[in-house]
Amino acid sequence: MWDVVSGLQVNLMKKTSMGRASPGETTKEVDTIGEKRKGKELDGNIFKKTRISTQTTINNIFKKNLREEVCLEISTFFYKNGIPFNVSRSEEYSRMFEKAIRYGQGFKPPSYHELRVPLLKKHVELVQQSLEGHRAYWKQVGCTIMTNGWTDKRRRTILNFLVNSPKGTIFLKSIDASHITKTADKIFKMIDDVVEEVGEENVIQVVTDNAANYKAAGEMLMKKRKKLFWTPCAAHCIDLMLEDLKKKSNTSQGHNLQR
């Protein structure tokens, strides 16, 4: 069998040499190679097949099973604590796991005390730093103060104040107005204090809903502060228009039924 293989190798070398070596030299070189190979122990299979390592496949299977276990724990955390599924779409959700993976094995999540005291204080500091960046931008291009009133589950009247600029919209403060009568004077006083806090020179306009008391307060504000404008909320105006259309539609249907 070896003689047959050697003969095939000789013929192959002759064809590929293309005249670069004489037949005698080629035969001699091949014979020398054959003698060296004869001295080695052969396992009976000359044309050895390359064995594909199964280590990669085993690792993939192991990681797949491990990921399923981790995902089960994460989903259990969501289900038992009533966390909305939309949380998984936030940037912070993915970034949280990336940071934990970078830490490596042995990472301990923050405790109840850490979440409640030191980490909360740290985030307050970060928000204040971000607010200072917005304040500096307001001085350059100006801003809009927006107010919105709503009632919580305890039937408390809450007024939110937000500030908008090309840099973005931020929440400034909220006021519990449950014990404050919603007269134009009281609303004017609250809005005027917020304008003073933001800086009159930075405020271009104030946006509120279109209720009569807010409209009167807006007019009072423009009389005091000549450089800013009061603007009714477009969304609230459309909402009032739709309510009026609904009332007219119900009235028309009632007349048709009477006929």
How would you explain this protein's 3D organization?
A 5-stranded mixed beta sheet has the order 3-2-1-4-5. The radius of gyration is 40 Å and the shape is elongated. Helices cover 59% and strands 14% of the residues. It is built from 9 helices and 5 strands, in the order ααααααβββαβαβα. The protein has helices spanning 2-17, 23-38, 55-81, 91-103, 112-116, 118-141, 184-198, 212-224, 234-258; strands at 143-151, 157-165, 168-176, 203-208, 229-232. Strand 2 and strand 3 form a beta hairpin. It has a domain at 124-242: Ribonuclease H-like superfamily/Ribonuclease H (Nucleotidyltransferase, domain 5), CATH 3.30.420.10. The protein is α/β, with parallel strands linked by helices and 259 residues long. Helix 1 (2-17) packs antiparallel against helix 2 and helix 7 (184-198) crosses helix 8 (212-224). Mean pLDDT is 81; it is low at 18-30, 40-44 and 46-50.
Describe the structure concisely.
The chain is α/β, with parallel strands linked by helices and about 260 residues long. The chain has a domain at about 125-240: Nucleotidyltransferase, domain 5 (2-Layer Sandwich). It is about 60% helix and about 15% strand.
